[in-house]
User: Fold these one by one.
Assistant:
Number 1:
Amino acid sequence: LCSTCTELDFHLILRNGIPRESAISLGPLTGIIQRAGQCGFCRLASIVIRRTWLLDEHPHVDLSEIQCSLYSMDCGCLQDPAPAPKELCHRFYIQPSDRPREIYDAMLAANTGLMLDIQLLEEDACNNERTEELHGRRVGDTIDIGLVKKWLDLCEREHGDVCESVWWRGSDKNLPKGVRMLDVTCMSIVHAPPGCRYVALSYLWGGMGAEYWTTQANLKQRGVSGGLDMSSLPGTITDSIQLVRQLGERYLWVDALCIIQDNLKDKAVQIGVMELIYGSSLFTIFAAGGRTANSPLPGLRPGTRRQQQHIDVIQGLHLTVPLPMLRETLTRTAWDTRGWTFQEVMLSRRRLFFTDQQIYFECGQDVWCEDVVAERKRQPRSYQPLRYNGVGGLTFLRTPPSWAKNEYLSSYASAVGLYTQRQLTMESDIVNAITALTNAWTKGFKLNGGDPRKAFRFGMSITDLHTVLLWQPEANVKHYRRSNGGMGSAPWPSWSWAGWRGAVHYAGSGQYLEIHKNTESPRLLESLVDPWFIVDEGGEVVQLEVGRMNRATAYPEEIGPRQYLPPQGIFDPLQLGLTNEHPPEPGTLIFRTSSAWFDIAQVNSVSSNIETHYAFFSILSNIPSPSTRVGRIILPLSIRSPASLKFIVLSRTNGPSGVYDENVLGERYSGCFLYVMAVEKKGDTTIMERVGVGIIFEGAWL
């Protein structure tokens, strides 16, 4: 120990605790890092700070003014009623005097925790007259199968319906006909037996050829006992088979083996029930530690994972830095970047994650891992550091109450934002890879009568089409049109986020003042288009079942001096020249609205260190005076400025101050903004395509 740490009684500090406000000074952070080679406790402090603050990725950040201090407090309680505070597991915590902004932003992006803690291993808990609960646990070269069995048994036995039932699945627990399983006992591909208890696998396909896939040619052979050759399978799958066997289970669902890969009809059927496959599995294995299908499950076999846990003995106490939380660990994996894996984790009720750090178990009630002793029946007022640091919370795990029937929209918006940040090997999979989620929302919330074919088109919710049309591109990402392999070279429709490569989000009108602000969802006051039609896959024009939102006002003064009224009239396809000679592409939206041309000019915004490909453009009118600002829109920087664009009206909303000339056009009032879409003609056709979405002051439009 260094001279500073020699003065500390670590036994006493852990046993009695030290409040944060009475923290003991450890000196400058730079000194702690310099002493890490000679002092055991400074080494632990340096490890947790360097890892949590991502210092290896930010070597030039200035740490010279930061002082550190040490305090100790309990890290949780698994009992109810709780014992005396001194009987609870305590940890050491490093408290810095400051945290550089660059470091804080990097930590948020990497999902690292903010706490800098050091834990005592369970073998020394009795020295402080405490139980082993919430103390550290040694992580070996291989996983403890008995521990995994304990997690599963505890969840099944104690968590009851919370982790057993799935709100979108309904009462029938049998999988649809045609779903197959890998029988790990007989090593064959079989039809899922009624009430089948099975495990599912989520993994990365890359790095392997198609030799191990199930095809029409080898399906019959694989259907007999011993017909599936283990030696032909990649490492992730063979390890998963061994794991399922060791856990005493019989059936495993693996997409490459259980779906006939060269049969488009079979693939379509299986993709259509994927929410049931993942939602009904006993648990899902998430192979998050690899980069290809041939990667091992880390820790299942000797030599398949590197020791990440560093233990130092300080004054006879075995101390270690807790391994990263699940959310932080996944953020750094290739698995977390892939499109298909997103719905697989969202829809699985129990999850077993294999990572380079350790294995984690997450269900609807708790999160457990190898390096913390936290296994206990959940009590009403219990808490522990792992519990809210999993990947749960992305979708309801229980049946939503009737009053929350529209809550799916916020879940949808959040999911689209996360999903579009991921990559797909086949860009044409953009809708297929989220179909299980849209099916779950449709069935759980009874959208459009619970019929997925009516509730979603091209990944967009038809029930709330007015709202979901308002997606915006992430400003720091380039966007390109996405081709749909199912329609030859034709791109996906421009009105859907699926028609573009690149991350998108949903945000309220506040984003038109701060381009990176997307904390709130769009809030519509009135839909201004009705009805909506679409050209279906067969070229027929069909009406969409879009919910209508009428404007509600409490007082007449809340309405402006003049009100925009949407154009009326009976829709006639012949009026638009929709004939067999010039049929529009499937996915073309048809609706009646009003349009107008406005000038646009890029807004001179404050410079930012965030790279951006989009910017604010003012929407300008020469009425009542030249270059009057009437609204604002977000457009790609490639748009020529100044220029003129055609705009169409979509809906009504409120908006922020500062985006139009209020001294010229008058003050804001409730519902004074119109959501508008900038459009441009597609080639020589009469079809228009989306350019961007913005807001215009109602009076200026009129």
Number 2:
Amino acid sequence: EVKIEVVIPEKERSKEEMSPNGKTSPLIYKVNGTARHYHLEEHPIASNPYHNPKDVVEASVCHIKDLENGQMREVDLGCGKALLIKESGEFHAVGHKCPHYGAPLVKGVLSKGRVRCPWHGACFNIGTGDIEDFPGLDSLPRFQVKIEKEKVYIRASKQALQTQRRTKMMAKCISLSNYNLSSTNVLIIGAGAAGLVCAETLRQEGFSDRIVMCTMDRHLPYDRPKLSKSMDSHPEQIALRPKEFFCTYDIEVLTEMQVAAVDVKSKIAVFKDGFKMEYNKLLIATGNTPKTLSCKGKEMENVFNIRTPEDANCVVKLATSKNVVIVGASFLGMEVAAYLAERAHSVSLVELEHVPFKKFFGERVGRAVMKMFENNRVKFYMQTEVSELREQEGKLKEVVLKSGKVLRADVCVVGVGAVPATGFLKQSGINIDSKGFIVVNKMMQTNIPGVFAAGDAVTFPLALRNNKKVNVPHWQMAHMHGRIAALNMLAHGTEISTVPYLWTAMFGKSIRYAGHGEGFDDVVIQGDLDELKFVAFYTKSDEVVAVASMNYDPIVSKVAEVLAAGRTIRKRDVDAVVFLSFRTGDMSWLTGKGS
């Protein structure tokens, strides 16, 4: 029999002796040679997961021979499900849903001790449940497996089965009240994915000194991709963590606070209002700033760059049953157009190129996407620009194009790209390239000791492309940047090696993408573009450097695993063997088991 029960990995057990007052005895952690104390906070699983017998469920699910090596099965326990896995002759069991957006992991990719989400590429260790690649913040609950009489039983906590997520154990700050308000050990400028993951990783690794995050936003960290994919979401609906989380783990967040300058010699950040904060370690994760139009009327009412939940909410309200003009067929522009198509009276999209996404997905995929939009009442005005925005009584009335066309417009959304938000660093001595990006190494370190940078505002060496310095403004990559930066603040010497992974959602369909296709010279497409069921391999010379798909899961996650393992896919593989293996369901070549 195989029995599964919730268990805490050894590294996450608190085995310290209890002090006389009943609290866990503090451990010692050294930061820059200084001894620091911290208390471990175990959440949400207690040391004894079965202290309440009523919270335990046990059920028979299958025979031991029902699973072959390399197979996964979603099993139902009546009050919840688990993912049963067999690899290298051993059974493992973890939560069955990705904690990010709830994707069924049984449809994902199992490879060398981890399972990768089929939707957005997050990876989880099958032995511990720990998250190893992103997006998302939480790990999977892990269940212990036992074999008895060749039948499989699962014994698990009902709570773990229902939540399907596990927040890793974190340290808490000691004696926070003793700190000088103008001094912190770690200062994080920016409260996006990179900044939050950095803060959480520090706490997970036992760091117990003060952590301060500051942001120009009025909200705690939130799921920024939803601003264009789910525009009517309110801030509390897309918050990455509740307010209580930051209080529990002593992560301070200063909202509506803008850093105006950084003095790296004195280790002081100067805020716009004159406030100064001294730091020991600094993470710069300021992201980017959207470009604006340069034409007449750009400052008038009802012209938006989508930067906040309030911006997105306001656009939806103003656009309902009205005329919308979107400038720029960027990811943001296209997602906004798709979201508003059913709500607005009309949606017009203005773009300088002749095909959307041409530089990123290639012309053929771009045309297929464009056709999907046209079938959903979106009107394109290509190879032209905006020359003027006209108003009536102070509000937008018309958008005039350089082609001479005049479009009726009650609201205009601008999505023409962005620039790194690094202007405040120009006199800092931190290395900034000609485009304004912060230059970092594989450990997310800048040229200044103790100063790290992460997210959309950096260029870093991408292992996938022979350590070429690249900028990858993806949500998943920002998470990983934050984690690597935190580990190296603690002198772990960890280098980044993740494979870029992104997705876009339009009209209920998703395009998934992995790799880095910049400079691709050919696109090999298998499937049917007209039916929007395809996989596109982007090649440079003879090598596949990226892959995109629609309605072809989990192929992008499969290829991401190949690239993550350091294997090379040649163009000839795509043309001959690869697609045949997809049709038959044989993916052995991807996991290294086939020739």
